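QA checklist item 7 of 12: single-chain prediction sanity check.
[x] sequence parsed
[x] length recorded as 492
[x] structure emitted
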Amino acid sequence: MELDEAFGLVGEFGPRQRRLTAFLVLLQVFVAFQSMLILIVGAVPEYHIDQEEIPTSTEGLAKHVRFSNNFTSIATEWYLIKHEAYKVSLASSLYFAGLLIGNIMFGPLSDKLGRKPVYMSGLFFDVIFGYISAFAPSYEIFAMSRFFVGITNGGMSLVSFVLTQEYVGKSFWALTGSLTNVIFAVGIAVYALLGYCIREWRFLAFVSNSPGLFFFLLSFMLPESPRWLYSQGRTAEAEKVLQYIALGNGKERVAVKLKQCVGAVKKDDSASDVLNLVQHPVLRWRTIILMYIWYVCSLVYYGLTLNAGELGGNLYLNVALYGLVEVPAFPLCMFFIEKPWSGRRKSTTAFLIFAGFACMFTMFLPENSGDIFFSPSLLALYGKFTVSAAFNIIYIYTSELYPTVVRNAGLGVCSMTCRLGGILAPFVPSTKSLGPSVPFMIFGIFGLSAGFLTLLLPETLNRPIAETIEDLQSPAYQMLKNKKVNLLEENS
């Protein structure tokens, strides 16, 4: 039998798969802690300089600067204010630069070596470097540890997302992908609560990193991805994993016997290499378009977050709201992407266009608008709400557009451009010096262009998943795809 048939036999989302995916989905709380760490540990409390002339050295700042006692941070410990303030942003940029490298490295590695060993290695070093950040004796060590945390955290979270998808049947990919992003958003709010309760930055960094150790120890119980094993020609091992899932789903008498995967990757084959994304015309155009969409999603998402962060008010409440505002976006996009009249492609297009228009509309509003429903600040949150929905869908959509043998490589390359958007996002709000609406105009133009560009991609709703690159062009795969499309049109 084919792999998708086997999932139908053992259960596409049975009790054992629910436990496996719940574990990996909850891991996103730890991922959120690491991603948002700098928002609180890099915050600057109110301070007073007891002389008119601003000291030009760190020693001078230490003598003449008095911080409020609300909380501590790397800014208060190493006096990262005035001419040293850029170092906080630099630590944040180094983290995103690490994410970029991690996405490049871990995607192809997991396609070649397996999902589980690469995921486990990434999580182990993520925890190690996280503790180094908490106990860093100097800013330089803290900044470099954040860079390595970015590499390991970004790569590990990418592979864990793919594992979450590949443990279940294809019809549940939208659900597991959305749950992953929902828990990440909730994790931001939980981190804000931690920051409110723990005001000493080193203890906060230690506590927020410790869940990673718990997840690492429990991860030894995870099986390898049956889809990856099948795509590598390791059919017997894939059958064992599926049998393990069947037993956990209460189907003891089910016997799984898979056909040999046509075009399976051999150990000396380079089919899972990133070069395949540009060598094959179908994958090349998909990759170019997806890279741009991921870049825009990241640029607008993080740019709006940083721009909304300039509103002032309670730091912890703001961080929590910026996470919680994303939560309603996920059930909304889940509703649309499963409908035949919208699907993945049209839903992504619509959310990106709405985000673009929300940003562009701020150009026509006064900066201090008294209307609570149409203030620039609230429109920025509207924009984040819709771009969060688009971000959620594009994770699921990208997983379905790539064959199993290059799925992690494809996600890795797309995530690479996503991190590039994250690196550049902090610079966009600074364009306010050219005009208060310039940042929103930039976000709006990018959002609209990415939305319309999405229409060039194929729809994947209720269509078969390709296991190998050859599947994309095989007559049998095309006939099955067209048959499902016709049935979908008849039912709609």
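[x] summary fact logged: Strands lie at 47-49, 65-67.
[ ] second reviewer sign-off
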